[in-house]
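Q: My labmate handed me this sequence with no annotations at all. I'd like to see what the chain might look like in three dimensions before we decide whether it's worth expressing. Could you predict it?
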Amino acid sequence: MSIHPKILEVTDRIRARSEKTRGLYLDRLAAARHAGPRRAALACGNQAHGFAACGPSDKAALKGDVVPNLGIITAYNDMLSAHQPYETYPEVIRQAARAVGGVAQVAGGVPAMCDGVTQGQTGMELSLFSRDAIAMSAAIGLSHNTFDAAVFLGICDKIVPGLLIAALTFGHLPAVFIPAGPMTSGLPNDEKARVRQLFAEGKASRADLLEAESASYHGPGTCTFYGTANTNQMLMEIMGLHLPGSSFVNPNTPLREALTRAAAKRALAITALGNEFTPIGEIIDEKAVVNGVVGLNATGGSTNHTLHLIAMAKAAGIQLTWDDFSDISDVVPLLTRVYPNGLADVNHFHAAGGMGFLIRELLQAGLLHEDVSTVWGTGLSGYTVEPKLGEDGAIHWREAARASLDEKVLAPVEKAFQPTGGLKLLSGNLGRAVIKVSAVKAERHIIEAPAKVFHTQDALIAAFKAGELTEDFIAVIRFQGPRANGMPELHKLTPTLAVLQDRGLKVALVTDGRMSGASGKVPAAIHVTPEAAAGGPIGKVRDGDRVRLDAVSGTLEVLVDAATFAARPQVEEDLSGNEFGLGRELFAMFRASAAPAELGAGVF
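A: Here is what I predict for the chain of 604 residues:
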């Protein structure tokens, strides 16, 4: 089927915009590929250090230069449920490598924090910048230059973007991303949300809330709602970096282990020592990036990726913009209803047909580029399959379901839940922002109300508890951008704003911070740029100013006379309290040099 003209148009303009930076990137890749790695060319002392801890057979293999060596970058820790299963992966990967005549070594570990633990806490101010710290940590592991390919073990919010930035920095190497899968379904997400709202209203105890949360987040694996972590997994598959159908297989199952072994073997099969050399820097091109944005919109994915995809693309020399997201959203239908865009979780999505069904539907509608490179060695049509474990213990890929097994969760294009993806670019005299409306009812896509200005989310919650929020309003929460305090998620506000909305008030959020991968039913203009700490106009808004958020026309305006608004001084805020405690002092250089949200909010 021919590709949709809008998808072609956006791809072509990204390619034209990126011609110089992409060209320089590919030149660097070619030079690095020509230079190595060549372990035999290392000094003997270098080599000896590199394999000193290996067993005799691995050591003997690494003394030469013809046996492929696979570097493992792992984000394992046993505090994150999503990453706990990775504890056993290195040995599984080493065994798989030996089975095909290769060697595998853990090249390095990277930090992995849990946004679920730090939501609403001081530690969340390190979260976004952990992405760049992870990229640097992975680069340190790979800098030994003794590897022919790498596998990356990571799942959650900033971890996969950081790992991909590192992988693309070493883009002359093949790289395969290996997931661990979602935890099994627990307490339904809508029930969890109901208890959260009751607690916010003082109608449920802390013990009730903890019981509900514990029943929802209850075992090893990724949280089952469709937030940033599971959006990461979708992206890695639709961009060709996972094995087909591997994203949402539960941990600690025979199929999950078999997929891990297969991924390790595949990574070794695509090194420069064989006949299928596939460096990751050539896989992630303009078409792959557009496919990622299409997948984000088709699944109602995390708003965090309006930052992360820009930063990841930049690492490959590709210049992606918010306008690209918005234009693609206009033509890509929403095909999934997974919480917070529905009641189902990712296990239900996987059971209904999962990634294989989704990719085939998008390909047939001309909304994805099929002619891309993948770690699987096929175009994207090779991902319209699902893995099954045979009686012999081997994986057999078969055609994905032709019809959705639950159209309330996963719909075909002709029965899409809405004609657009729900990500919109907003612009106006308050700057530029993004909004996700796939979970917001149509009657709330336009909100006009007086502003109530806060400088912390706790201040808004305090006003709610004091009974001060009884009329329609738009909450303007500023000094939450990357330069102010690291751009934390403001997900702590979700239950409070949802309660007020359910009481019949018209409410919305406008902020230079982030919301969450689980952005929900309250309209939220987020990532406002320029941020208040950089002199952005959001710093001029006063209590009582009428603000209009229009997700239909794509505007974000304060309805104040232009001359009056221009003449207003910026509000100043003492940000010294953000500089110390829980490691924030170590991230001062990140805050000082962070790019605007629209450019990915990174330091590279």
